[in-house]
């Protein structure tokens, strides 16, 4: 016999099958951005960031990116941040980095960084690489 809960769920799915499938497809589509990125390939992708970002804790045009995963946005002392970044106290987790790198100005209006990584695979690999780097 069915429990009330599972019956309720079935009824819900029947009432909005389109919503159900949209949610299922969305979760599949967004998964690769966060799963199994290749850090070795991400190191190569980082060449597109290296003109402005160091990995040794030193500020360049932008703040250092070692230790950025899990760090609060706009929090490196002495870095030249936009007021948009300064006022943004979000933590750079994988999802936030993915959103910012896909479209910086859309994710954070007023940011002074214009470089983006339009390919989801590039972002996943780069984030996997950044995760291997400590802030020391
Ligand atoms: C032309 C210079 C330039 C390039 C190239 C560049 N950035 Fe940036 N980046 C900046 C600047 C400037 C900021 C500060 C933005 C602000 O304050 O709005 C920034 C900020 C960031 C931040 C936020 C850091 C923090 O401490 O809050 C991340 C993450 C980031 N960049 C990642 C990247 C990645 C990854 C790449 C390579 C795909 C990249 N950037 C390429 C200039 C650059």
TrEMBL record:
Signal peptide range: 1-35
PROSITE patterns for the chain: CYTC (PS51007)
InterPro entries (UniProt xref): Cyt_c-like_dom (IPR009056), Cyt_c-like_dom_sf (IPR036909), Cyt_c_1A/1B (IPR002327)
Gene3D superfamilies (UniProt xref): Cytochrome c-like domain (1.10.760.10)
SUPFAM superfamilies: Cytochrome c
Keywords of this entry: Electron transport, Heme, Iron, Metal-binding, Signal, Transport
Domain Cytochrome c: 37-134
Cell membrane found in the keyword field: no
Pfam families linked to this entry: Cytochrom_C (PF00034)
KW Iron (keyword) present: yes
Family matches, as PANTHER family: CYTOCHROME C (PTHR11961)
Protein name in the entry: Cytochrome c2
């Amino acid at each position: 016999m069915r429990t009330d809960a599972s019956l309720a769920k079935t009824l819900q799915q029947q009432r909005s099958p389109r919503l159900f499938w949209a949610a299922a497809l969305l979760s599949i589509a967004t998964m690769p951005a966060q799963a199994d990125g290749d850090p070795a390939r991400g190191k190569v992708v980082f060449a597109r960031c290296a003109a402005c970002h160091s990995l040794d804790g030193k500020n360049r045009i932008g703040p250092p990116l070692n230790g950025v995963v899990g760090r609060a946005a706009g929090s490196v002392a002495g870095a030249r941040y936009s007021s948009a970044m300064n006022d943004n106290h979000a933590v750079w987790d994988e999802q936030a980095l993915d959103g910012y790198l896909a479209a910086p100005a859309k994710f954070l209006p007023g940011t002074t960084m214009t470089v983006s990584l339009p390919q989801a695979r590039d972002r996943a690999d780069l984030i996997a690489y950044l995760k291997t780097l400590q802030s020391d």
